[in-house]
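User: Hi! I have a protein structure encoded as tokens and I'd like to know what sequence might fold into it. I'm fairly new to this, so please keep things simple.
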């Protein structure tokens, strides 16, 4: 399929003047609308802006390729604008942009447009071609230049494919960017051109949103002298074991491909040895903290669907019982007093029970790839269940008399057995051995690095044992080691921490200091808005919910101060996370001079995000002006969390925004807390943020 099938003369506008990025986007969208590609221009603009928020689509050299995939698109299409004087499109190289293409892709459609886009991206790497397009005086001339270049490119690719069948590739490459569209293909083109200029044969695999194209074969990898990885995300690395691998970014391949080719030709490239994981490189400049955060977020991101899905079902169970009149009389059975509620609580509770194992499993997976997954799951299960269950299956477990006294262990055991039992398997009176979320995090890191250790220890084994290692050695030995550490060290110790946390919540509740906790948790949600501090607060809240569920399951009344403290903590966390996007949306409305036109256009989007408890809607604003925006969101969110806790608002769901407000205790004051915090953020932004024209 040719580019001209997506781009018509009516979709081309030449020689216009543009004031800013937002006007450029509006002009391009208007062209799409005039051609008949859209059914909802406003919704499509939201998709375009959402993509720009992830990183500018102006890739430098005067070129911008904004793109969006949305249900608002009627049919895939391409439009173009030239702006000879240039426009500030927040380009990667800081230079004005004078050639702009915008691609519109419908959701759920075939990815044919991606092939067309990839071809266009490679063509745009030719500066003389781009200059011809900018200088074109008519739309027909513009399309003619594209057709001619496309024909040349097709012939070049055909010759390249023919040649590739006749000789092995000296160099290989892989390109991949987070979205898998523009940068992926332009990086590939940059490497191919630089290799050709140096007389080097190269094949480049593109790992884009339409899947892997031009995939490298095992035979090609075996014959290659060097593999160049121009990647901004992880790719499959096991296949490159024992080969020279040069790590770079897509930006390097786009702007400095000759340097990468020269370095590869020098032979001064380290040999890659695969030790597990799909990590494309281990950057020596990466901090330990960043590495830990990356692995932790891998676990959290996989855990969240279980937390949200299961947690909301449990919240609905409480809602059903409340509607049926059991809110005050259900006691320890609250949430299971009616058949529907019991069903929802059973399903939701079972799903939520998986969140700690999933958290631990995918932390381990991030560290050690697939071999770490089973070991991590095992550690997470041990963290979630603790050690006390062992006493239920053994004759030495003893019993509790009518006075609560424990008997059995000291009489029936001696020596090492007594030590093991008393140290690792707590009886009902000696403490908690459920390490929960903290234990799950510890188990994930423990499992990942245990498996890496086992992989290193087994690296010298004969090749014939390769199939045995992942199926027998890693899971058996790994689970045993993790089991010993969890049962005899981490579960008892972290269990004490969790017991202390419960005691602290109870003490704060009894002392009337939960408002202080609400202030801190609310503010934490607005400092980095999706970053490590935000996630730390959220994980604390979900852990508190899990703790409350465990207490209720053990017949603790729902009205118990310790249980209520857990629900109050979660309420403060959610309301704090809902303040930044709503506060910013209000500020855009009431103080428009403080924001650009593009920022003001996100009002509706930010309101929806606020109502859905998606704090990340505020990130583009914070990134653009952190010194003014972050203090405003922090103060507003902290006040909202403080008021929510002060009014003893409770929340039994871990997520959901306004859609779970029916499960909130004291919902009216909860809404008031949210609105007051958002108003404070709005007012502060209006007072301290500079006008756009003065920045």
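Assistant: Happy to help. Inverse folding works backwards from shape to sequence: for each of the 695 positions I chose a residue that suits the local structure. Here it is:
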């Amino acid at each position: 399929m040719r580019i001209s099938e997506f781009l018509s003369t009516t979709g081309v506008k030449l020689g216009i003047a543009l004031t800013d990025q937002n006007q450029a986007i509006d002009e391009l969208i208007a062209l799409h609308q005039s051609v008949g590609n859209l059914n909802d221009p406003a919704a499509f603009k939201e998709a375009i802006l959402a993509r720009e928020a992830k990183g500018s689509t102006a890739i430098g050299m005067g070129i911008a390729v904004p793109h969006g995939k949305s249900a608002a698109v009627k049919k895939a299409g391409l439009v173009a604008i030239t702006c000879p004087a240039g426009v500030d499109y927040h380009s990667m190289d800081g230079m004005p942009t004078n050639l702009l293409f915008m691609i519109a892709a419908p959701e759920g459609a075939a990815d044919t447009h991606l092939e067309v886009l990839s071809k266009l991206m490679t063509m745009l790497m030719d500066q003389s071609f781009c200059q011809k397009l900018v200088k074109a005086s008519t739309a027909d001339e513009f399309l003619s230049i594209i057709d001619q270049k496309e024909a040349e490119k097709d012939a070049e690719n055909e010759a390249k494919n023919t040649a590739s069948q006749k000789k092995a590739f000296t160099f290989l490459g892989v390109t991949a960017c987070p979205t898998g569209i523009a940068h992926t293909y332009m990086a590939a083109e940059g490497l191919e051109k630089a290799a050709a200029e140096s007389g080097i044969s190269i094949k480049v695999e593109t790992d884009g949103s339409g899947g892997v194209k031009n995939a490298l074969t095992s035979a090609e990898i075996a014959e290659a002298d060097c593999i160049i990885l121009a990647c901004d995300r992880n790719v499959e690395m096991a296949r490159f074991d024992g080969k020279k691998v040069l790590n770079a970014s897509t930006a390097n391949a786009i702007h400095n491909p000759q340097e990468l080719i020269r370095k590869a030709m020098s032979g001064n490239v380290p040999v890659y040895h695969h030790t597990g994981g799909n990590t494309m490189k281990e950057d020596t400049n990466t901090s330990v903290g960043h590495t830990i955060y990356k692995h932790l977020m891998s676990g959290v991101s996989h855990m969240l669907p279980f937390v949200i899905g299961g947690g909301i079902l449990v919240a609905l169970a409480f809602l059903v019982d409340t509607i049926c009149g059991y809110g005050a009389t259900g006691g320890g059975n609250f949430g299971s007093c009616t058949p529907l509620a019991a069903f929802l609580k059973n399903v939701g509770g079972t799903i939520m029970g998986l969140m700690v194992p999933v958290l631990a499993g995918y932390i381990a997976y991030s560290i050690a790839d697939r071999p770490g997954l089973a070991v991590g799951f095992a550690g997470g299960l041990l963290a979630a269940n603790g050690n006390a269950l062992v006493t239920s299956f053994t004759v030495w477990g003893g019993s509790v008399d009518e006075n609560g006294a424990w008997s059995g262990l000291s009489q029936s055991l001696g020596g090492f057995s007594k030590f093991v039992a008393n140290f690792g398997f707590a009886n009902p009176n000696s403490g908690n051995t459920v390490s929960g979320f903290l234990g799950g995090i510890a188990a994930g890191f423990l499992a990942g690095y245990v498996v890496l250790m086992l992989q290193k220890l087994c690296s010298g084994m004969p090749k014939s044992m390769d199939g045995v290692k992942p199926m027998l050695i890693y899971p058996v030995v790994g689970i045993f080691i993790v089991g010993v550490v969890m049962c005899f060290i981490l579960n008892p110790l972290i269990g004490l921490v969790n017991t202390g946390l419960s005691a602290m919540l109870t003490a704060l509740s009894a002392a009337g200091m939960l408002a202080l906790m609400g202030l801190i948790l609310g503010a934490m949600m607005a400092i980095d808005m999706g970053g490590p501090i935000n996630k730390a607060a959220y994980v604390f809240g979900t852990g508190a919910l899990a703790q409350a569920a465990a207490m209720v399951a053990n017949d603790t009344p729902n009205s118990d101060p310790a249980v209520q403290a857990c629900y109050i903590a979660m309420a403060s966390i959610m309301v704090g996370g809902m303040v930044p996007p709503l506060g910013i949306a209000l500020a855009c409305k009431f103080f428009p001079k403080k924001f650009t036109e593009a920022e003001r256009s996100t009002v509706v989007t930010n309101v929806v995000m606020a109502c859905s408890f998606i704090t990340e809607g505020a990130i583009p604003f914070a990134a653009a002006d952190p010194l003014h925006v972050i203090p405003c969101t922090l103060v507003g969110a902290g006040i909202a969390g403080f008021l929510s806790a002060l009014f003893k608002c409770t929340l039994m769901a871990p997520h959901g925004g306004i859609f779970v407000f029916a499960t909130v205790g004291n919902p009216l004051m909860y809404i008031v807390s949210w609105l007051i915090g958002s108003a404070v953020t709005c007012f502060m932004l209006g007072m301290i943020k500079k006008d756009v024209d003065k920045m």
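A useful reference point when you look it over: The mean pLDDT is 80. Feel free to ask if any position seems puzzling.
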